[in-house]
Model the fold of this input.
Amino acid sequence: MIEQAYRDYAAELFAYAQKYVEANTAEDVVQKAFLDLMQCKEKVLKIRAFLYYRVIMNIFDNTKMQNNFNRMLQEVPLHRSEMPDERMIYAETLAGIKETITTLPEKNRRAVEAIIFNDSTYEEAAEECAISVDAVKASLKRAKSVLRGQMVE
Done:
């Protein structure tokens, strides 16, 4: 399963990652995505969606690119054949992210939405939500943790 997934998706994941980071970092984040897949392969239902999600999260973790996060989600490429199920995977992934964010307490949810969907800085989100920058960072970390858990269910 892992070997086939690597043959099917590694090149496109690498090309996607290179849009946002240098080649050596792109290679690292793609490799980490496959390592994550190996660790929880029994729980993953949609391999391609999982791998794209992990590449996005790895880029986000490695480069602190919160201003480009929303653009990255919107640009997840569809399979060249543009199969309807590929569009569904993207829509389900984005819907899952939004649904997870709604489970956070209101101030935390607003802070995470400001960063992820409105490209706000930590400071702007903290000011808007009347919470500290550390609370914003903790909220984002908590949301990412919940998202990771949901991606393997």
Observations:
- The chain is about 75% helix and 0% strand.
